[in-house]
Amino acid sequence: MYTLPTDLIVDILSRFSVKTLLKFRCVSKSWCTLIRSPEFVKTHLSVAAKNKDHTHHRLVWTENRDLLTSRDIKQHVLRECSVSSLHNDSVVESLDLNYPLKNPELRVCIVGSVNGLICLDIEDNDLVLWNPTLRVYRKLPDSRLRLSGGSRLDRITSVMYGFGYDEFSDDYKVVGVRCSCTRYPLEVKIYSLKNNSWRTKGDILEVVQLTKPCKFLNGKLHWVNDMNGGFRNYGNIISIDLADERWGKVEQPDYGKKNFSLKLEMLGSDLSVFCNYKTMSRNFMTTSHADMWVLKEYGVKESWTKTYSIKYSPNVF
């Protein structure tokens, strides 16, 4: 019987969706071994990332709903839709996701997503790495970063997580940072999926308060370092390289001298920043407008470009 060359089989199979590949594993032992191999997984991820039709991409987000009985009680869910449908369809259907440890009464947060894996933080308590396509997950061991005390100082101490992929060691990592302006020292721990364990990172960059969200780019995790409680005219964007685990800073554009707050985002494959400007109105601090800056070339300060400027209605904020 004629057999196709392995390279050609890989080229053909790498163009199918993961769900279809799961069915193809039943064709033969050789196909099953091929599809399970790390080399094929990397090839499939590379092909999917270059797919301009986004047929293999899904958009996943959190949604908080008021229950009919009370506006004080929220129902927390994850929803998804096809990215290709956003481009091609006039009406887009979104669906509820059955995620691990699902409980609508518990708040769920998406820490990050890399190569089809999603890191979830459930009620600031349980961390989960989840593959929604394969419907498998791993609950991470306790990082012991979160304080269990009931004092007011304990409650204002926060833990920020970031999730990314270390290409050098072929490992997925979660970085947890305990931030506090109280008596508790700042502490950093790094989780390795390969080792399924946390370890404490010794050298620590001086941090006041990291803010969500964390963005993964160029092998590094990025946060905004809040220098003055969300209303300031100065702030840092700090990063940690998942390969050598060194801290760094991203040079920023000139936002002006007004009070503002920063929020990290991604525009395509570029790091971007929403700069929300604050003004006093009737003794309240409100957001007047926002500028969106995009870093066109990573590491080059001069490549920051102001792409959008949005003026807010005074009745919105």
Would you kindly provide a written description of the structure presented here, covering whatever features stand out?
With 317 residues, this protein is mainly beta. Among the domains are: 6-49, no CATH class; 251-317. The protein is built from 6 helices and 19 strands. It has helices at residues 6-13, 18-24, 29-36, 38-49, 83-88, 152-155, and strands spanning 58-67, 70-82, 95-96, 108-114, 117-122, 126-131, 136-139, 158-166, 171-179, 187-192, 197-200, 210-217, 220-225, 236-241, 247-249, 260-267, 270-281, 284-295, 304-311. A 4-stranded antiparallel beta sheet has the order 4-5-6-7, with no helix packed on it. Strands 8-9-10-11 form a 4-stranded antiparallel beta sheet, with no helix packed on it. A hairpin with an 8-residue loop joins strand 18 and strand 19 (304-311). The longest helix is centred in the first third of the chain and has 12 residues, at 38-49. The protein is globular, with a radius of gyration of 22 Å. The mean pLDDT is 82. Residues 1-44 form the F-box domain. This is F-box domain-containing protein. It comes from Solanum verrucosum.
Key descriptive features of the protein:
globular, F-box-assoc_dom_typ1, 317 residues, F-box-assoc_interact_dom, four-stranded antiparallel sheet, mainly beta
